[in-house]
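Comment on the following before class.
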Amino acid sequence: MRQYGMYPSSNHASFATDRILLTRITGPESSRAQQLREAAMLRRLDRGTSDRPNTARLAAGRDQVDTAAAFAIEAAGSGDLLGVSGFGAIDRHEKRATFAPIWSIGRLDEAALVSHVAHLMTRYAFEVLVVERAEVHLDWRLRHMLDLHANLGFRCEGRLRAYFAADEEPSGDAAVLSVVRSEWPSVARRQRGVLAGETWRYRLPSDRPP
């Protein structure tokens, strides 16, 4: 039976599954931040590939992550760097956390990476930040990404028009998905079941607009 527990840490610096480890990035000059700057590819998974230069994409990614909760995504066994994510916003008064995009350097299957990271980020939101609501905004056109989050217990609440700005193409709509605290115990069980069964391996991507 796989164990999905927190790595030993007195300051909640790390969360892990059997495949993914999230490690806090504590400063802009950290070794992990440097490795991300040097990565040959950096892809934002909730919007697809960008044609911006790699350094600009990284700068945009760091701008979208709350500096108090930025995480390097690592392979749990080897420690290899897989990407970066975190929280785009943490409203402590309203007890609400919004996930930042997941940025990948392409060393792990996208569905596996998203499934494990989304589980750990949701755990961190409810168990460490102690929020009442965790939410994520996804490109409405990426149907497989919406399916992955729905399979993990996120509920789609609606569509935000022209939410994602684009340099040349029309702005993209966003789907708003969330989990609230009253749902978290059952959602946590569901997520552990999904990760243990790896049901996402048998899902076919579908990026067609509805």
Remarks:
- The radius of gyration is 16 Å.
- The beta strands are 14-16, 20-24, 43-44, 70-75, 81-91, 96-99, 103-104, 133-139, 155-164, 172-180.
- The chain is about 30% helix and 30% strand.
